[in-house]
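Quick one, T. Sequence first:
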Amino acid sequence: MTETPDTAQQPDTYAHALATLRELTRNPEAEFHAGQWEAIRALVDERRRALVVQRTGWGKSAVYFVASKILRERGAGASVIISPLLALMRDQIAAARRAGIAAEAINSANAVEWPEIVERIRAGRIDVLLISPERLNNPSFREEVLPQLLGSTGLLVIDEAHCISDWGHDFRPDYRRIRDIIASMPQGLPVLATTATANARVVADVEEQLGGAAGPSGVGGVLTIRGPLARSSLRLGVLRLASPASRLAWLVDHLRDLPGSGIVYTLTVSAAQDISELLNRAGYAARPYTGGTDPEEREAAENALKENQVKCLVATSALGMGFDKRDLGFVVHVGAPSSPVAYYQQVGRAGRGTDHADVLLLPGAEDREIWKYFATASMPDEERATAVLTALASGETLSSAAIESRVNLKRSPLELLLKVLAVDGAVERVRGGWRSTGRPWEFDAERYDRIAEERVREQNAMLAFEQTRECRMLFLTEQLDDPQAERCGKCDSCAGPWYATDLSEEAKSLADGAASSVGVSIAPRAQWPQGMDRLGVSVKGRIPEEERAAEGRAIARFTDLGWGQSLRSLLAQDAEDQPAPAGLLQAGVKVLADWSWPQRPVAVASMPSRRRPQLVESFARGIAEAGRLPYLGSLEAPHGGPRGAAGGNSAYRLADVWDQFAVPEAWKPGLLEHRGPVLLVDDIVDSRWSITVASRALRQAGADGVFPFALAVPA
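Structure tokens:
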């Protein structure tokens, strides 16, 4: 659809903009989509603040690149684009350069280039600078680069602007700093926010944060341009299968039936890695793509997909916003995202420049448990926030590691909480760490409760999407409050199932093998946490080699597609203690059989368990019997054993288990007589401090080594 422009007032701008669009797209016949020219005119001629809510593939980047080039040619400073992902930045830079726009990025992947880029900014040789929102909280960037940018910026762009909003499906605390930046900008400086995934509540929130006084033309307020969000190229479907193995078998059998190349999304890193391996064994070219993938490998994987060198990337949400392959043929989800809006965002990678693309969801019974497991508080917890503020109350600058020794929080949630407190003005990041601003901070319980309720509503809506018999595209666009939502006529609800449902015996066999695979490495702890003296434990530095555990094994992760669901049920907090099931013992024996022992154990011992004594002891006895090894029994818990809850940081977890395990005196002669390592059995190995302290006790009692062996690790 093209727009009939009103060019009476600014005919030169329209002609200039259209010529730039055609240069950008390399299409001499390109025309503006409905709304594109309106947005460009608002930015260039009216110098307004605008919010563009349009479907993926509509051409939001064309708006800000065309506007940037015209503004630069009229003497304005460089445009600053705040963009959330490296993959998105790479695509945006490539697109800008096609139109002759000098574009660069400052992000975590190119730190060595920062000085040169900053110098080019100062010299006026850069037209567009892309930065991540996290740069706004970097002290050196904030002090040395940001003032220069704010003093000369010609256009500010906030891409994926739903991240600004607490209500957005991908809320990121650092995005909230943008409100302060906007407020500090001179009157009449144009600002553009873009997103494809904003419902009415998010739109209202972003509009409020954009604010915006009247520009030179006298037109004030935020101009919101909203188009239809339905994607006519996508054919949606949901296929419910009985088990994780059957979903894997479907991929093995039918991935080749899907058009072109595409993305298989998973909920966990382990699933992405396991499915990628399975597909390669089945003869497909597939590569994993997760948050743990090295930046160079990510870029290579993206290029392999764009050049159709692989059938698919098997990815977590790390491959999400902004990845642009115009002819991406399909998106398959093995497990559902936790909201329809997040799902819409991910399936929007497909069919951006083609008439047809297939989108299939293979939900799992375990999805809700995984949502719950991975739910991180992007909003602060009052008790923990108060503890952080108390730790910083002296005015001292503390590193994250130093704060960890004072507050019982792991590094990732601690740093997320610090970001939220910084955005709220209670703390600030400075060179050397964090410090208090001294400003009062109050916990907004009502607000955070409302947001938590919204997250639950989103999860329930995702379950409703899976079960609906109505048009699936209509359902998704209604979740985004699209006033133009309508039936698509091609999804499995509108036109009937379009996907095969049969599974071959060969695929079942291959998938069963993958789903039943066992064996996860448990890396030994090698370093004591910092600040233990503050918690009454006098250790620091490296753990002596003669006191360490060796590398261990677990049967599986809670997040694994195969054993994960069974272990989550067996080890749930409210699960009844019971003897180890026969299948679990068989899985344990298989792990041992596949273990490349540096030295075979001479005995088996078990950890004392308050919650699951039958399960742990019976499993240890069964393993000892299968291996024809003596079972020594359970370690003692002289002080009642650890009482702390799961979670928390290393320092507090270690303090909780310190001196809580002892070797029975009756074992010591045997340990000294039968030289060799002990296999030490536990139910769950999470922080690894319990197994580390227990292994230390065994080593000090005479054991030559300790091999930890657990039923499960969390992830």
